[in-house]
């Protein structure tokens, strides 16, 4: 993992610098409190029990308060002191935990907010390749990496270093020889960490991947429940689940083995260090150079020192699993190649109040989703304000691609597209998309109320406006029949409405947006003929006075267009009014001819 | 059989569409009824239900117990070398009888020699303890993961059986979380709460035993603090439990919200609502943040409370033990051992205290798991359901479908189908026509028994569907839906979805028949190309042709078809129709027709209105009569003429 990866997340941590500073101060105070901890023990053992006289300074001070220094006073005093030291310690601990909880939570939120923002802006292609479940995982669990990273790189090292420094100084004062011996273990531990650290990272990544495979399998199955049930594959899915689960168990067990090697080596180093101190310290007591109480204080310090040193060195290993998460978060944050970027200084307003709006021009536009495989090639055409142009052509001819280029979901490889004379790339994205209303094949209703869905593009719209567009979209009637009318909340994927009803809400939504350009991507394709009529009516209303680009396949729809562009393999092969094209007898006439055979019914009914 | 009463038992079925104020997950709003469970398991409490999954790993658990005993023994012995050093090396007292053998070691009679041996002893104690811990850790990781997966496999299987209505209402992200992370509750219960409980109890018992032998009075003091600690636990654990659940619930809401946005991304982008979606999610996160801080605050209160009690205990032992040493009843080394036990005694007691945190979070997870678990699937297999044994015995051709007096709806009191009769004989094609909302898709959903009718019954070859096993029933039915629902598998795997064992030849043949072979071969890896999520890298017509190939390969006598429309232009459509007609050959087909050409090919056309079949007959007969059919036709023509 490169330093750059950490650096790019660092700002999220440093934005909480005030709290981090507080944590630093509290840490310093708390290491002093820890240094005090073994002293009641020394007082007890040396002065109260072994009868060593109390140092004059302390004895004198106590005498001034009229306290006779005796074993009883010393024993009670030691007990009371241990309580006082505890109180101090826990007070500092509460402060530390709380500050870190707040700071940590905030930095995770900020990062997750940015990740979500990026996810919203990544290209559709990115999302087609990235299962939603995986993106959610990155958003909700991987973003904790900034918390873990700050803890591992900043908070914990600072805490351990301060602790080491403070206790090291006290230990040095107490007994320089023992202090030097106790520091001997540190380099050995560092060696063990470097030696065993790397396999840990690989294991963590493997375990994570195994789990991700399982989660995404569950997600995939649960989101295709209709097929699962219709094809009765429940049992097979269950078997697959078990196989994936068994995989994941095996991987994490191997991980546990690697971890325990590591604990053996570090533990052995620590315990040998302690043994060394016990032996050397014991010899010193025997030689009369150290009191038993002093020996015990030193042993207590040694434990804390070793804990701090171990914690410090272990951080190297502890960060390894986090790096996988950091990678996954940064993958999202990094901008993709096919992504649309807003130019600095982009125009905030394209429309001048005067004059017709909504002129679209394609100039020699070439674009594709995969390098070297253009989906549209050298396309040039113009749509005048208020004109309706139909795009027809076989599936895969590039119709939808042209539509998404107008909304600038992608940028062309070469050539340019203009709206009212401005290159799309010179316009602020929000402004561009405010000029365009889109109706998709899929209606994409959100689990909000009907009214909120209709007002999605303009949340501030009044109820009257919402009802007005619903009426114009032929939707008012069925909406009023819903349990709570306009306040009915729609189930996920709009499941409680029929396809035709959902699409009419989508049209009302586009109407309320009141944009100059309208793009209809086969709005009735998912509907049967019976539900199509009210929608086509609604489309008529929506179209009035707007520049309209409609992708259509039904003759009934195409006939309404002023002009038709016929696409074949990414190129415009025919262009003209529907009548002209029919008369010309080209591709258009051929494909419509097929449909005519289906449209003979009107004649029969009329007859 | 009347299903309406059963419907009434499902909480929230009527209110959910409207009750959105309670949040996107209708399970969240259901709350406790989910735990009590319509299954009526009565006294079963959550930890007993989870415990069963834990006990599935009893072999590992037994071995782990062995390791625990070993580790605890090492822990109890740990301060003894130090005691012997203080008392017998430094203070120079004679070795106590049980440790007398130390003097017989080479050099053990001299003080420095004894010091060296005792020092070595600490290292040996560590090594043995480590060995026990390592084996325990290895077993624990495996056993924990296996019990979690056993539980999540069951939840997963259960969810697969739940009705489409349930899935339509439940955000997928929330369900995925319940399957994959909330099921961790069983590990939290058994491995993170249960095993530490055992470890702590064993540690407590053995340390108290040793202390009792050293100094009974001192042991009593140390023991006396336990009830105080118990009060602390009782007092602080309650709020912690509730707050932990609240925190998880908030996280679920935020996750569902993010998922909604990411799923509807084209819409969000086209309407330039990215910022608003971000604010919406921020709102959910803020709730989750404050829930987290509330949880942290109750955890802190808990920690300080128990810490205070344990500090009081330590101080008391220190002071009282001091007096005992002064009076000569205890050696300094003995006091050190007691103090070190007191420190390690409070550790297991605190573990016990924190158990309730683990239990609380396990309970929160378990609540969410059982909420879905206890929702009975609306369609269940009867005990003793039969495997569909073929048609011959009933004296009818294979694939005879019959609806008799079927009434059904999705919400109580609002039937979609009323007293519907319908018959499809083998080889016939029945076309359903009618306005949207007339119940056409509902008729199709009832045939593979995605739902059960409230009244009346549906029979396949004379056998009521409810008497058949679901798998055997659904094997008889091929389905092509409007949404082809391709899975992110390879093209070949998608086609062979119903019959994974199918050979590549069979797959290719089905694809050829469905007119899909040509475009599949043009894909980067041909039949092995993996389809992007939601099949997005293929066009609508191509996806639909794959769905047809999938149904062809399944080769079932009954075909239900929500006629794939028109996501297609004229040319692809004719190609698609050809595949579709080939699929219909020789099968009983019930289809929702969108196209005159299809309607005309049907043996019979049924016009649905108001949940009933109001007219039936061939296309020509219906046209000849004046009726709804003509009105519908006229409507269609209008659409074509304007």
- What structural class do helix, strand and pairing data of chain A support? alpha/beta
> How many domains comprise the coordinates of chain B?
3
**CA-atom Rg of chain B in angstroms:** 35 Å
Average pLDDT score of chain A: 82
Q: Largest interface, by Cβ-Cβ below 8 angstroms: which chains and how many residues each?
A: A-B, 182 and 173 residues
Shape of chain B: elongated
Specify the CATH class of the largest domain in chain B. Mainly Alpha
CATH topology of the domain at 3-333 in chain A: ABC transporter transmembrane region fold
Strand content of chain B: 5-15%
Helix coverage percent of residues of chain A? 55-70%
Shape of chain A: elongated
Biggest sheet record of chain A: 6 strands, mixed
> Strands of the biggest beta sheet of chain B: in what spatial order?
6-7-8-3-9-10
Assembly level: heterodimer
Provide a descriptive summary of the structure in words.
- The complex is a heterodimer of chains A (607) and B (642).
- Chain A is of the alpha/beta class.
- Chain A has a domain of 331 residues: ABC transporter transmembrane region fold (Up-down Bundle).
- Helix content of chain A is 64%, strand content 10%.
- Chain A has 24 helices and ten strands.
- Chain A has a six-stranded mixed beta sheet with strand order 6-7-8-3-9-10, with helices on both faces. In chain A, strands 2-1-4-5 form a four-stranded antiparallel beta sheet, covered by helices on one side.
- In chain A, helix 1 packs across helix 8, helix 2 runs parallel beside helix 8 and helix 22 crosses helix 23.
- The radius of gyration of chain A is 37 Å and the shape is elongated.
- The termini of chain A are far apart.
- In chain B, helix 9 packs antiparallel against helix 11, helix 11 runs antiparallel to helix 13 and helix 20 packs parallel to helix 21.
- The two termini of chain B are 49 Å apart.
- Chain B is α/β, with parallel strands linked by helices.
- In chain B, the strands form two sheets. Chain B has a six-stranded mixed beta sheet, sandwiched between helices. In chain B, strands 2-1-4-5 form a four-stranded antiparallel beta sheet, covered by helices on one side.
- In chain B, strand 4 and strand 5 form a beta hairpin.
- The N terminus and C terminus of chain B are likely disordered.
- Chains A and B meet through helix 3, helix 5, helix 6, helix 7 and helix 10 of A and helix 6, helix 7, helix 8, helix 9 and helix 11 of B.
């Amino acid at each position: 993992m490169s330093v750059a990866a950490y650096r790019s997340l660092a700002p999220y941590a440093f934005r909480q610098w005030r709290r981090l500073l507080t944590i630093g101060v509290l840490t310093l105070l708390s290491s002093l409190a820890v240094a005090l901890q073994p002293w009641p023990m020394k007082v007890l053992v040396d002065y109260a029990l072994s009868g060593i006289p109390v140092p004059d300074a302390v004895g004198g001070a106590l005498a001034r308060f009229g306290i006779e220094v005796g074993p009883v006073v010393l024993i009670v005093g030691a007990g009371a002191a241990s309580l006082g030291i505890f109180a101090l310690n826990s007070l500092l601990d509460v402060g530390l935990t709380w500050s870190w909880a707040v700071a940590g939570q905030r930095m995770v939120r900020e990062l997750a907010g940015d990740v979500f923002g990026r996810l919203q802006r990544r290209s559709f292609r990115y999302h087609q390749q990235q299962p939603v479940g995986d993106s959610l995982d990155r958003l909700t669990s991987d973003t904790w990496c900034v918390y873990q990273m700050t803890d591992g790189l900043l908070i914990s090292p600072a805490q351990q270093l301060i602790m080491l420094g403070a206790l090291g100084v006290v230990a040095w004062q107490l007994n320089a020889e023992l202090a030097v011996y106790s520091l001997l273990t540190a380099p050995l531990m560092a060696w063990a960490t470097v030696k065993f650290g790397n396999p840990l990272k690989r294991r963590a990544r493997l375990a994570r991947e195994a789990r991700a495979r399982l989660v995404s399998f569950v997600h995939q199955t649960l989101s295709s429940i209709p097929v699962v049930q219709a094809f009765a594959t429940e049992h097979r899915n269950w078997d697959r689940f078990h196989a994936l689960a068994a995989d994941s168990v095996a991987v994490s067990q191997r991980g546990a083995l690697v971890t325990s090697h590591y604990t053996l080596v570090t533990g052995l180093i620590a315990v040998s260090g302690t043994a060394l101190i016990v032996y050397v310290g014991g010899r010193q007591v025997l030689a009369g150079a150290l009191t038993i109480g002093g020996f015990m204080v030193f042993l207590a310090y040694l434990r804390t020192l070793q804990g701090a040193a171990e914690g410090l060195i272990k951080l190297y290993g502890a960060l390894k699993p986090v790096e996988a998460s950091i990678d996954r978060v940064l993958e999202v944050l990094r901008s993709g190649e096919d992504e649309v970027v807003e130019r600095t200084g982009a125009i905030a307003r394209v429309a001048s109040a005067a004059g017709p709006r909504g002129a679209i021009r394609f100039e020699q536009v070439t674009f594709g989703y995969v390098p070297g495989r253009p989906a549209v090639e050298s396309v040039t055409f113009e749509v005048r304000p208020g004109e309706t142009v139909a795009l027809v052509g076989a599936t895969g001819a590039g119709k939808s691609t042209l539509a998404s280029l107008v909304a600038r979901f992608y940028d062309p490889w070469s050539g340019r597209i203009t709206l009212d004379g401005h290159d799309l790339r010179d316009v602020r994205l929000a402004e561009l998309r405010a000029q365009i209303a889109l109706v998709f094949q899929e209606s994409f209703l959100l689990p909000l109320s009907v009214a909120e869905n209709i007002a999605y593009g303009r949340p501030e719209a009044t109820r009257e406006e919402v009802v007005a567009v619903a009426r114009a979209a032929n939707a008012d009637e069925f909406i009023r029949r819903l349990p709570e009318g306009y306040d009915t909340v729609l189930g996920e994927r709009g499941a409680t409405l029929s396809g035709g009803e959902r699409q009419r809400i989508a049209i009302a939504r586009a109407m309320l947006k009141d944009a100059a350009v309208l793009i209809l991507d086969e709005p009735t394709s998912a509907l049967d003929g019976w539900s199509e009529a009210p929608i086509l009516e609604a489309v008529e209303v929506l179209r009035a006075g707007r520049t309209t680009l409609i992708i259509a396949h039904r003759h009934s729809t195409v006939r309404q267009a002023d002009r038709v562009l016929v696409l074949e393999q990414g190129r415009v092969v025919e262009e003209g009014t529907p009548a002209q094209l029919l008369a010309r007898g080209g591709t258009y006439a051929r494909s419509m001819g097929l449909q005519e055979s289906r449209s003979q019914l009107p004649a029969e009914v009329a007859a | 059989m009347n299903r309406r009463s059963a419907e009434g038992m499902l909480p929230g079925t009527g209110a959910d569409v409207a009750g959105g104020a309670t949040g996107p997950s209708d399970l969240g709003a259901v709350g406790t009824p989910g735990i009590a469970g319509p299954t009526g398991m009565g006294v079963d409490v959550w930890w007993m239900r989870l415990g069963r999954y834990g006990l599935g790993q009893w072999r590992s658990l037994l071995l782990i117990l062995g390791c625990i005993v070993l580790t605890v023994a090492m822990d109890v012995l740990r301060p003894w070398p130090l005691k012997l050093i203080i008392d017998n090396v430094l203070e120079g007292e004679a070795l106590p009888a049980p440790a007398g053998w130390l003097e017989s070691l080479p050099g053990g009679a001299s003080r420095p020699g004894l010091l060296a041996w005792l020092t070595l002893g600490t290292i040996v104690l560590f090594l043995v303890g480590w060995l026990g811990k390592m084996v325990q850790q290895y077993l624990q990781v495996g056993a924990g993961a296996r019990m979690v997966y056993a539980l999540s496999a069951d939840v997963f299987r259960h969810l697969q059986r739940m009705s489409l209505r349930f899935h339509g209402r439940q955000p997928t992200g929330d369900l995925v979380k319940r399957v994959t992370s909330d099921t961790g509750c069983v590990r939290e219960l058994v491995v993170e709460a249960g095993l530490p409980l055992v470890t702590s109890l064993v540690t407590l018992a053995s340390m108290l035993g040793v202390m009792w032998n050293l100094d009974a009075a001192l042991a009593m003091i140390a023991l006396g603090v336990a009830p105080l600690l118990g009060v602390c636990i009782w007092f602080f654990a309650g709020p912690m439990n509730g707050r932990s659940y609240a925190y998880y619930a908030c996280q679920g809401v935020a996750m569902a919200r993010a998922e909604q946005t990411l799923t509807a991304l084209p819409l969000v982008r086209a309407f330039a609502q990215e910022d608003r979606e971000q604010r919406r999610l921020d709102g959910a996160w803020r709730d989750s943040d404050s829930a987290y801080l509330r949880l942290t605050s109750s955890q802190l209160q808990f920690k300080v409370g128990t810490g205070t009690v344990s500090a009081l205990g330590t101080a008391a032992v220190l002071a009282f033990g001091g007096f005992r040493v002064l009076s000569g009843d205890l050696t300094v080394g003995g006091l050190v051992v007691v103090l070190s036990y007191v420190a390690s005694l409070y550790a297991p007691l605190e573990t016990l205290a924190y158990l309730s945190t683990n239990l609380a979070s396990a309970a929160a997870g378990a609540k969410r798991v059982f909420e879905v678990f206890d929702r009975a699937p609306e369609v269940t297999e009867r005990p003793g359901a039969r495997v569909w044994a073929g048609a011959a015995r009933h004296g009818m051709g294979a694939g005879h479908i019959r609806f008799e007096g079927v009434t059904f709806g999705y919400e109580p009191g609002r039937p979609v189908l009323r007293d519907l009769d319908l018959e499809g004989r083998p080889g016939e094609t029945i076309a359903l026509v009618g306005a949207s909302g007339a119940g056409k898709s509902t008729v199709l959903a009832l045939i593979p028994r995605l739902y059960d009718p409230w009244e009346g019954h549906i029979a396949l070859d004379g056998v009521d569907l409810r008497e058949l096993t679901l798998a055997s029933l659904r094997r008889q039915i091929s389905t092509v839906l409007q949404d082809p629902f391709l899975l992110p598998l390879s093209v070949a795997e998608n086609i062979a979805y119903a019959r994974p064992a199918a050979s590549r030849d069979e797959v290719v043949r089905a694809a050829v028949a469905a007119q899909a072979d040509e475009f599949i071969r043009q894909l980067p890896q041909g039949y092995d190309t993996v389809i992007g999520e939601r099949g997005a890298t293929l066009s609508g017509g191509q996806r639909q042709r794959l769905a047809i190939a999938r149904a062809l390969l399944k080769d079932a006598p009954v075909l239900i078809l929500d006629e794939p429309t028109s996501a297609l232009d004229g040319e692809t459509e004719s190609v698609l129709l050809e595949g579709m007609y080939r699929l219909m050959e020789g099968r009983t087909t019930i289809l929702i027709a969108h196209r005159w050409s299809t309607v005309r090919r049907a043996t019979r056309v049924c016009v649905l209105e108001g949940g009933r079949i109001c007219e039936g007959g061939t296309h020509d007969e219906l046209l000849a009569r004046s009726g709804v059919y003509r009105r519908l036709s006229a409507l269609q023509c209008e659409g074509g003429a304007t």
